[in-house]
Write a structure and sequence with these properties.
Order of helices and strands: HEEHEHEEHEEEEEHEEHEEEEHHHHH
Shape: globular
Number of domains: 3
Strand content: 15-25%
Distance between the termini: 19 Å
Radius of gyration: 25 Å
Structural class: alpha+beta
Length: about 425
């Protein structure tokens, strides 16, 4: 049941994306030949007598399409996509990602309206700390960290997690009594040996789930990846994050070699002889809000817009992390992985909290997927909406139509490359399942 919910969530996000293309095509008098949910062979279909559009439900419950008359090549006849004015075509192509952002915003309004927002509100500031001396106060809302916008407390946590904070100087922007205040300070630092990873509870069983592996760290060099599950350290079994924490408290890293036993796809492996690196890190002498708090309707709208921006920025930082080596293609999830993640999240919350909270979790994940899909589709690569928009921008600059055959080939081979990538990621997801 929980994985059916995952399929429904993914299907609704795709449906809204394709509906954006469909609606703008109809508004701009472009004929839609087929509007489909899913991919592969057709299970059910209905042809509208009025518009001639075929509405189809296909076998594979991932993806969808909005096929328009003469979309890439053919005659520029009335009702054809290529025969429409350039600005109309641009509106139709951009509508899919824009509708994803609209959906993400509306879902955020629902969740934040019901449960509250998560501003990065400072809760405590250490007495005599550099932060206190610089003017940071309890109740300040952090809106920028090192020049990077902070929409909520999760973004501040993610930002500090994925990008190491500087040790020489830190700049914050806070909101206090409706005013924005800049705060800068030299943080305290601590030097210690580290293996270079972050971890969390493994909700599916024993062990500790790895959530981040630092670039160039001993863990990274040993081939350990995000999603692996630590089951033992130096032969000592660890079943929870508390046990792992307690182990390192009793056996602090001192530069000696460490053996890490972990599971990947159900297979146990041991990385031997990991050498911890001596690392200097800044000390954070303040805490910030990690719980939701009710806000007025203006606040709901503001934080909902911030939620969409947060997920867009997370997507950008994740892509950047792939280029920097923090993440790899093997850390990505395709449709199968997304369905599993959605289903597992719903099942865990429903079992440990209640069904209402699980539904809100489902809606929150749907917000993330929708914002992510909207942004990813705007990347200017062939076969994506962003790639098509780029060709149209070039056409606008040149003030003459592009080569239809060339553009059709670019989109066709781009689609083949995209499908090959999806097959690879899906196979990887299936290996992780079984």
């Amino acid at each position: 049941m929980k994985y059916i919910l995952g399929i429904i969530v993914l299907g609704l996000v795709v449906l809204f994306h394709e509906f954006g293309h469909f609606l703008l095509a109809r508004l701009n008098h472009i004929v839609v030949e087929e509007f489909a949910i899913g991919m592969g062979p057709i299970l059910l279909k209905h042809k509208s007598k009025k518009s001639g559009t075929v509405y189809a439900l296909k076998l594979l419950p991932f993806g969808g399409s909005c096929a328009m008359l003469n979309e890439d090549e053919g005659e520029k006849i009335e009702g054809s996509f290529i025969g429409a004015a350039l600005w109309r075509r641009m509106l139709v192509v951009a509508a899919g990602p824009v509708f994803n952002f609209i959906l993400a915003f509306l879902l955020s309004v629902l969740v934040i309206g019901l449960t509250g927002a998560e501003p990065a509100t400072v809760m405590e500031v250490g007495k005599g700390s550099p932060e206190e001396a610089a003017g940071l106060r309890r109740g300040d809302v952090i809106t920028s960290f090192e020049g990077r916008g902070i929409a909520n407390s999760r973004e501040l946590y993610f930002d500090q997690l994925i990008k190491e904070s500087p040790t020489d100087h830190i700049d914050l922007t806070v909101e206090r009594n409706g005013k924005r205040i800049s705060i800068g300070y030299q943080p305290e630092t601590v030097t210690r040996y580290m293996l270079g990873f972050n971890y969390d509870s493994n909700t599916e069983g024993d062990g500790v789930l790895i959530t981040m592996v630092s670039k160039g760290s001993a863990m990274k060099k040993a081939g350990i990846r995000i999603g692996d599950i630590i089951t033992a350290v130096n032969g000592t079994e660890v079943k929870s994050q508390e046990e792992l924490y307690n182990y390192f408290q009793k056996h602090p890293l001192d530069g000696s070699k460490v053996n890490i036993t972990y599971e990947r796809n159900g297979h146990e492996k041991t990385a031997k002889g990991l050498v911890p690196a001596k690392v200097t890190r800044p000390v954070s002498n303040f805490t910030y809000n990690a719980a939701r708090q009710k806000v007025g309707w203006i606040g709901v709208l503001q934080y909902s817009a911030g939620e969409v921006l947060f997920w867009i920025r997370v997507t950008i930082k994740t892509i950047g992390g792939m280029f920097s080596g923090t993440f790899s293609i093997n850390d990505m999830s395709g449709p199968v992985g997304i369905v599993k993640t959605v289903g597992d999240a719903y099942g865990t919350v429903a079992k440990t909290v209640d069904v209402f909270s699980a539904i809100l979790t489902l809606i929150g994940i749907m917000t993330m997927i929708s914002a992510n899909l909207g942004f990813m589709n705007l990347i200017p690569l062939p076969a994506l909406d962003g790639g098509r928009l780029l060709l149209m921008v070039i056409e606008a600059i040149r003030r003459k139509p592009g080569n239809q055959e060339l553009e059709a080939n670019i989109n066709f081979y781009g689609l083949l490359a995209l499908l090959a990538f999806m097959v690879y990621v899906t196979i990887h997801d299936l290996f992780r399942l079984f």
